[in-house]
Specification:
The chain folds into two domains: about 45-100, no CATH class; about 105-215, 3-Layer(aba) Sandwich (Rossmann fold). The chain has a seven-stranded mixed sheet, with helices on both faces. It is built from seven helices and nine strands. It has helices at about 5-15, 30-35, 55-60, 75-85, 105-110, 130-145, 175-185; strands at about 45, 65-70, 95, 115-120, 145-155, 160-165, 165, 190-200, 205-215. The chain starts with a helix and ends with a strand.
Length: about 220
């Protein structure tokens, strides 16, 4: 089964509350994004949006220049329906089906140096092969404006080894910074980092590392 087929199946059979990342309070990725205090006209990409609440919080707070990316068409359709039903639909919010681990795409060529902030809560850690990571980082590096921000979360070094029945690549703070320095696809600079213990809907604990990274 391909990654696309896997995620299509996940989002076809599960509600948000059945997924480990689901939260009952304000989305952690949105709270991290708020620290940046960006202008409401900022162009923001949410990578691997799934059916998370990040875009709902962003739209409610006046951010409308959004591109929501996911490999699953089903997830994007569910998210758009949710926005329409909540009265949050905006013609400037785009729903983009895209495999971020694949080589260059048409979308990437249209987004060169235009993105003010790239949000990724736990997509990058699914890139377990060197080629996948290189393709993903290339998209981030070429899309972000200079001084643009990348808000990133992955499972920490003591976090789970799998998510949604797929293997993940865990990162300590030092491991991620060393990887980015060696990739030569930036340059990137870490502005802030912290660790979070996320409680799943069924009471489990998952350790995440978070970074706010700036493209120089």
């Amino acid at each position: 089964m391909s990654n696309r087929e896997h995620w299509q199946q996940v989002f076809s059979h599960k509600q948000a509350q059945q997924m480990s990342w689901s939260q009952t309070n304000t989305d952690t990725a949105y709270l991290a994004f708020e620290r940046l205090n960006l202008n409401k006209s900022a162009y923001i990409v949410e990578a691997g949006c799934g059916i998370s609440d990040w875009s709902k919080h962003a739209l409610q707070n006046g951010y409308q220049n959004l591109t929501l990316i996911d490999i699953s068409k089903q997830a994007l359709q569910c998210l758009e329906i949710n926005h329409r039903q909540s009265g949050l639909f905006s013609h400037t919010c785009k729903y983009q089906e895209l495999d971020l681990s694949a080589p260059e795409s048409h979308w990437q060529s249209t987004a060169l140096n235009t993105v003010d902030c790239w949000i990724d809560r736990a997509v990058f850690h699914f890139m377990t092969e060197a080629g996948q990571r290189k393709n993903y980082i290339n998209k981030v590096a070429t899309s972000l404006k200079k001084q643009g921000y990348w808000v990133l979360a992955t499972f920490a070094e003591n976090g789970p080894q799998q998510c949604s029945n797929l293997p993940v690549q865990r990162y300590s703070h030092q491991q991620l910074i060393e990887y980015l320095d060696a990739s030569e696809l930036g340059p990137f600079q870490c502005v802030e980092h912290w660790q979070q213990d996320h409680i799943t809907p069924w009471g489990g604990q998952q350790s995440f590392n978070w970074w706010i990274i700036q493209r120089r």
